[in-house]
Each structure stands twice: as structure tokens, then as C-alpha cells.
Fold this sequence. Notes:
Elements: H1 8-17, H2 20-28, E1 34-35, H3 36-43, H4 47-59, E2 63-68, E3 71-76, H5 79-89
Antiparallel strand pairs: 1-3, 2-3
Protein name: Transcriptional regulator, ArsR family
GO molecular function: DNA binding; DNA-binding transcription factor activity
Organism: Desulfotruncus arcticus DSM 17038
Amino acid sequence: MKETMNYDEPARLLKALAHPTRLCIVAGLLNDTCNVNKMKDCLALPQSTVSQQLAILRAQGIVDGVRCGTEVHYKVTNEKVKELIKVLLGDKQDIFK
């Protein structure tokens, strides 16, 4: 059982990324920061849905937000996730541009 503990963190990260919206959000945040309003427009989703998905990503330590006045700008903070997304998606990034 001790050996499986080594897989807890990778499994947790993969579970958080295993939703198309969350995967899309993380891919879009790889190279730049973005706020919820721009994300909801690019994804054509309600603000509440984007916020819920960001909350899951924040809870897993994948993204973090920095407050700028009334807005929060999010970015990917987990280096393992950055590398994983680059391998998984190649050049299908920058969706928030």
C-alpha cells in the first residue's frame, strides 16, 4: 500500500484536469494571465460555471489568482501541470487570445 501513496498527487492533478472545461482553462492560462470575464466570453459559458471550475483548479494548487482592483487575474502555478498540458495539447493553447 505504501507504493500507491507515491501516485496520490499525480492522480489528484489528473482528476482535476479530467474535465474539458478545466483542461481548456488551464491551456488558456499557460502563457498569460486572464480574468473570469474574458474566460467566460472565450468559452461561451456562464460566469458561475467558469468560477466553479476555477475554484476546483485553485483547490488543487493548479492555478492561483492575483487581485487587480475589482478583478482577479488567474495563472497556472503548477510546473508539472504546465509540462503535462504542453505534452497533451501541443500547439492547441492560447485560447484566451
